[in-house]
Amino acid sequence: MRAPNRPLSELPLGELFERLIGRSRLLAQQEVELAKTEARAQLRTEAKTAAGLSIAAICALLAVAMMLVAVALLLDIWLAGWLSALLVAAFVLAVGSIAGLLGWRTRVRDPMGTTRRTMEGNIRWLKERRA
Questions:
Q1: Which of 6, 58, 72, 73 is the 20 to 30 Å CA partner of 81?
Q2: 3-class secondary structure per residue, 32-82
Q3: In terms of domains, do 64 and 95 share one?
């Protein structure tokens, strides 16, 4: 029978290790639970943020479309309607193409590369130790 209030200096080494392992396990479980709780809360917050930003992006896109229609109507004063609309469309296509090409150049070419290499190294190290 263990005395719960005995000083640690009086406990046998085996019991000290049992307590250490038990408390370490409890701490790890609590840390995992904290991480899960925090992740859930942040995920809900990020979902609300994404919804708000999506609505803002749609409104901005519609506003830009209306501005482009206004530019085409303005050009209609000097050019034929179809030609002014075609010029505005060509301008938008050029801007979009340039933005797309610049965006494509900045894509991630090796996703999670450092993490993957580190994990592969750890797995190799563990396999070597087990052999």
A1: 58
A2: HHHHHHHHHHHHHHHHHHHHHHHHHHHHHHHHHHHHHHHHHHHHCCCCCHH
A3: no
Residue that finishes a domain, picked among 53, 75, 97 = 75
Q: Which residues of 32-66 are buried (b: 16+ CB within 10 A; e: fewer)?
A: eeeeeeeeeeeeeeeeeeeeeeeeeeeeeeeeeee
**What pLDDT was estimated at residue 2?**
52
Q: Are residues 114 and 95 in the same domain?
A: yes
Q: Are 108 and 87 found together in one domain?
A: yes
Round to whole Å and give the CA distance between 119 and 123.
6
Residues 6+ apart with CB under 8 A from 78: 84
> pTM for this one?
0.52
pLDDT score recorded for residue 116? 86
What are the pLDDT digits (tens) for 20-60? 888 888 988 998 888 889 989 889 999 999 999 999 999 99
Q: Say yes or no: 26 and 71 in one domain.
A: yes
